[in-house]
Design a protein that fits this description.
By secondary structure, the chain is an alpha+beta fold. It folds into 4 domains: 40-192, Diaminopimelate Epimerase, Chain A, domain 1; 216-364, no CATH class; 374-461, PDZ domain (Pdz3 Domain), CATH 2.30.42; 468-533, PDZ domain (Pdz3 Domain). 26% of the residues lie in helices and 24% in strands. The protein has helices at 29-35, 52-69, 84-94, 132-148, 152-171, 216-228, 241-246, 254-265, 309-315, 331-334, 389-392, 412-421, 478-482, 501-508; strands at residues 43-45, 72-77, 106-112, 117-122, 190-192, 269-274, 280-285, 295-299, 305-307, 316-318, 324-327, 346-349, 359-364, 369-372, 378-383, 400-404, 407-408, 427-434, 437-444, 458-461, 468-473, 489-493, 496-497, 516-523, 526-533. Strands 14, 21, 22, 23, 24 and 25 form a 6-stranded antiparallel β-sheet that branches. Strands 15, 16, 17, 18, 19 and 20 form a 6-stranded antiparallel β-sheet that branches. A 5-stranded mixed β-sheet has the order 1-2-3-4-5, sandwiched between helices. Helix 4 (132-148) runs antiparallel to helix 5 (152-171). The radius of gyration is 26 Å and the shape is globular. It starts with 28 loop residues before the first helix and ends in an 11-residue tail after the last strand.
């Protein structure tokens, strides 16, 4: 299956071939009909444009539109129709498009590759959201650029994504502005499909170069501005050489550029973090808007900062709700580990109850700090049985586990808890120290054990102080305002002596704005009293 990695348009991209998950909603009439075999086909590919895999994937997205937005979205492909407009209207009514929706909200896409035309039909109660101007814009500036290169599946999927984005805008009271369309699109809802017509160079030919800047922030500003100017060149100076090569055959439609500009205009930059050598940087946005992807930068020999979209596009995936996550399948090959320094203020977790396989969704750390019981982690002391799972993964007695998934320097209790709860088949990332060598290992969680047997076949122990050691403090966070420093040992937390990690993190959920937070820490052999007033907690967008 072809992959839809539109790296130049990160704000509106969903990883086409990546693992995704769908938010779980109510059981509606359409779902009940589907369960008893009465639901109509969402895709009727009579022209045989899609593979079975492509059809199944697009169909999942259609089901999400029905669950989340109550839109009954159907797709028909058929060759050499006498009149595509009449056919679409008659089929919309005869197939009762919209009857799967609780409020009769229907949409039909008809593609005729034989006559190279397409049409979108919408129900009356959706016309205020999907106006003729928007539909014409969708066809000409989203579908056609993909169809020109014969990538019909990608064009359908990208169009479905824009339908979702427009539904969200309507919920927020945002209308479609026809003045943003830079060409005359006409008032109809049908258009030439342009299948296999060749790449559209409208937004690349005669477009100016964009030079890299002295700071990541300015390079980023110029990049976002390129969306507003619809500059689709892939050889811009603001890109690293690897990014230019990687983006060679990627498609960037005008509709996607428009939406990228609108999306990032509403994003709030939270941190720009540099590595110690000052050769890489990471820009991260507030998680209040989970649709704002982070950006990675490399500093060139000329001192200019350039966008590393190759690493970012390989490492990140997106949910149907356009929520970005780290894809642990591609953790090593993507090179994202070289940018770990920019994500230390985040935990990457698999939310329970979702259909996660390899996704790590970002969450803020409690208090904006990382603290664990011991300095180094958990040491492997013994393997059990000839079939010890951990031994088969290449671990050895004496290895010190310094990271288990997103938890660094994990205490034995945290390792044990993760071993017990992880679902079979999920990728587990670990970093271990073996004498003077540091190793990274990724392996799949084993099946649940039989009664009386060990799942991982290993014993382990944490050496060191029972006091929590602070490993990281996020600038500007509650922990930072409290006065914590990396290397502090926590002697007391909110009056509790020798507070363990569980107590510290559980307390976070009980704190409210205006509460006082106190702590005592050992720093360079001195006992120091700390106190601050809790502010408003940062909000995080819904994961869907």
């Amino acid at each position: 299956m072809r992959m839809l990695f539109l790296l130049s348009l990160l704000a509106v991209v969903v990883s086409y071939a990546g693992y995704t998950y769908i938010d779980q909603g109510y059981i509606d009439v359409a779902q009940l009909k589907s369960q008893i075999g009465l639901a109509p086909r969402l895709i009727d590919d009579q022209a045989d444009l899609l593979t079975a895999e492509e059809e199944n994937y697009i169909s999942e997205y259609q089901q999400m539109l029905l669950r989340r937005f109550d839109i009954d979205y159907r797709i028909i492909t058929k060759n050499n129709l006498p009149d595509i407009n009449q056919y679409a209207w008659q089929t919309f009514n005869s197939e009762e498009v919209g009857n799967q929706s609780q409020h009769g909200r229907g949409m039909l896409l008809v593609i005729d590759p034989g006559k190279d035309t397409l049409r979108i039909e919408v129900s009356g109660n959706l016309e205020s959201t999907y106006t003729d101007a928007f539909i014409a814009y969708l066809e000409n500036r989203q579908m056609v650029p993909f169809f020109n290169l014969g990538r019909v599946d990608e064009g359908i999927f990208a169009t479905s994504e824009l339908i979702r984005i427009r539904a969200i805008q309507a919920e927020e009271g945002i209308g479609f502005d026809p003045s943003s369309v830079q060409i005359s699109l006409g008032g109809g809802a049908s258009a030439e499909a342009g299948i296999n017509a060749g790449r559209d160079t409208t937004f690349t030919k005669n477009k100016p170069d964009i030079l890299a800047a002295d700071t990541p922030e300015e390079t980023h500003r110029r990049f976002i501005e390129s969306f507003a100017n619809r500059n689709g060149r892939r050889d811009l100076d603001i890109f690293t050489d690897e990014t230019k090569q990687h983006m060679g055959d990627k498609i960037g439609s005008a509709a996607q550029m428009d939406n990228a500009f609108q999306t990032y205009s509403r994003c709030t930059i939270e941190h720009v973090t540099y590595n110690k050598a000052n050769t890489r940087a990471v820009m991260v946005y507030s998680l209040s808007n989970r649709g704002c992807d982070p950006f990675l930068f490399e500093k060139g020999d000329d001192g200019k900062w350039r966008l590393d979209l190759k690493t970012l596009g390989t490492a990140l995936g997106h949910s149907y709700g356009n929520i970005w996550y780290l894809d642990y399948r591609r953790y090593e090959m993507s090179g994202i580990k070289n940018y770990n320094f920019g994500f230390r203020h985040l935990n990457f977790l698999r939310p329970s109850g979702e259909q996660f396989e390899h996704q790590g969704v970002p969450y803020y750390r409690d208090y904006g700090m990382e603290a664990n019981h011991v300095i180094e982690g958990t040491k492997i002391t013994e393997f059990h049985g000839e079939d010890s799972f951990m031994a088969k993964q290449g671990f050895k007695v004496g290895d010190v586990i310094q990271q288990w998934e997103s938890i660094t320097y994990p205490h034995q209790y945290e390792v044990g808890r993760r071993m017990e709860r992880v679902r079979p088949g999920l990728d587990i990332y670990t970093r271990v120290r073996r004498n003077d060598t540091y190793l990274e290992k990724i392996f799949k969680a084993p099946p649940r054990p039989a009664k009386g047997t060990l799942r991982f076949g290993v014993s382990y122990h944490s050496n060191g102080s029972r006091s929590c050691l602070v490993h990281y403090v996020e600038p500007g966070s509650l922990a930072d305002r409290l006065g914590l420093k990396e290397g502090d040992f926590i002697a007391s937390w909110q009056g509790k002596e020798d507070a363990d990690q569980g107590f510290i993190h559980d307390l976070f959920d009980t704190l409210n704005a205006g509460d006082e937070l106190t702590a005592k820490v050992y720093r360079n052999g001195n006992l120091i009293n700390l106190a601050t007033v809790v502010g408003e907690k940062r909000t995080m967008g819904k994961v869907h």
